[in-house]
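re the bet — no i am not wrong, look at it urself. input seq straight from the record:
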Amino acid sequence: MEVKFSKVFSVSVEPDEFLLLNETGFEQTIQLTEGQLMLFDGTSMKDCWRTLGVDWLIEASSSHLNLTKPDIAGLGSSTFVISPKLSSLFLNNFSKNIELIDCNLNGETWFLFNVVGFNKALNEDQTIRNIKNGKPSRIRKFKKMVFTKSAIENPELFRVREVGLQYFTTDSKNSLYTLAKEHDIKGLYFHEVEVV
């Protein structure tokens, strides 16, 4: 496979600057009642999806009153949701491993990224795990995380099972990183990850 990128980035949200989304209380009740909790575990959800009710997660503290509404919001720590004004960038075959599924935010249709599958890109030889008291740290898993460039199959947006609930992108054409930079998309932060 020809590699068409030079950098890899982890993707995150900044909860001290931008609002996050959360499932509505009604939505959570339905999921608990029906035993159908939304799990973003790498499996496809397009055949069993129903519109997910979401709302802004707003804390009562005054420090959260000045948060900005993002163009792409975090849905808790699970995934990202795109505003309607940007959906056209992602709805036309953004990536073969991404399902864009609809959410209802106060009558507006936002689209959630469901990343299907995992890339086996962690370079175990050069990665250094963070061990505390003889066990891997649950908070900060790695002292140094390194990816193998040629093992990244989905450069637009991907996950790596060994890393946990994190998302990654590259600087390839039409990647989440490139689209965010080209269109000045607010809400996401990109931190470079070492690649070999």
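see?? Residues 25-34 form the longest helix (10 residues). told u. also The mean pLDDT is 88. so pay up
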